[in-house]
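for ur thesis appendix - GNAT family N-acetyltransferase. copy paste whatever u need, i formatted it the way the template wanted (i think)
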Amino acid sequence: MCKFKWRKQVLSEDWPLLLEADPSKGMVEIYLEQSDILEVREQKELIGILVLKSNDIQTSEIMNLSVREDCRQKGIGRKLIEQALAFGRTKNDRKIMIATGTTSLSALLLYQKCGFRVEAVERDYFTQHYAEILIENGVVLRDRLILSQEI
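the 3d part is after this line
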């Protein structure tokens, strides 16, 4: 049985999952300070994480979402997103945003299945904000999609 829990502090065991979703530790450290963290554990083992940052009074953004590889395809990512939407409602958010690479096909499908819609494309985001070239699904990752959902 999975147990979900919100917290503020970052634990050392979070880093493998955080860096799987965003390979820049510096970028992750910047948004972690202003975010809430939702963990999911199974038998006390961390199997998933979501980072939710308040952008302004009525908008929050899912900055990081990762599920341990051996626990994927079990609905855990969807449950993390549902919990984030519910948490946003308790804070009176009107919109939740999430961004992903244009080559992140499985993530993009998940977000759309959860009701998110493409709002904008940031051309060359990854080539301008990351020192290393990122390759995903055999394609150089250049552009970032911004998706949102009214809640």
